[in-house]
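Example is below:
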Amino acid sequence: MERERFYQLLGKALDTPKRWVVISHLNPDGDAIGSSLAFSQFLQKLGHEVSVMVPNAFPGFLAWMPGADGILLYDKDTPRCQQLLAEADWLALLDFNSPSRAGAMQDTLNQLNINRILIDHHRDPDESPYYCVRSETEVSSTSELVAEIILQAGESYLDESIATNALVGIVTDTGSFSHSVFGPQVFSICAKLIEHAASYNQIHQLVYDTFSEDRLRLLGFAIGHKMEVLDDYSTAIISLDKRELESFHYQIGDTEGIVNYPLSMKKIKMAVLVTERQGVIRFSFRSKGSFSVHALAQAHFNGGGHVNAAGGTLNCSMEEALEKLHRLLPEYQALLNQG
């Protein structure tokens, strides 16, 4: 949808107070939480009644974010969430573009006959009849899009809570600006956010310097004992099964960022973290340069995402998952070893 058309339609949706539910994807990350909170707080400033919900729990290192204590977890409070969805006038989907990414919420979303908007930065959005769509793949994050929307309405709408939440979403989804930066616009937006947000040093500390001892030891174990380096494919794989995670008292968010460490090696073009969680095998893919982990995840692992960052899942054993990954690597060897 053209940018001007989106803003025209969004303006009509926001012109009078309504009941909104803002939702994001399964296993929500910093961008999911940051964009959802920032957008919901913007709606509240416009006089709307807003609820924020996600399918399941989010990492504890995001719990300090302004408004996070009011987020509803669908798997923990299903009747209340279903009631709010049934009573809502409008639905906003943020940081995902298909109900299939909504976990246990998927069936409920598919059954709703409700106006809905989509704000997202992932590839291949579904063809649901959204009222309006802001879907841009060459932006850092959904939080960047939300910040743009708010700034379009007027910088006066920014306050410390909104700016802090949007900034957290951008910082976490770019790995502190180490990837997914497509141009200067993200820095221009962040400059405005920093003027209104909490101290950036404090934000960075709250997100990145809150490891538990168990989480730090898990990181050391993953790199020291479970990292497999495949020189022929410029690839590194880290696998952590359920037993190994439980031995470090795994909490949601403890594996966040582990997949990025192998990419710090000059010779590595793709890093893969494979974990056994919630009864399925989860893949987190990262790459450098032009190699598309989105294409790999979409073709073979029921997933997708971005060129250099993607995810996927398989319903199989850890052994079967790793065997499939190893079996596919020769098919991509030439692309992985380019340049």
Q: What stands out?
A: The mean pLDDT is 96. The longest helix spans residues 318-336. The chain has two domains: 3-208, 213-336.
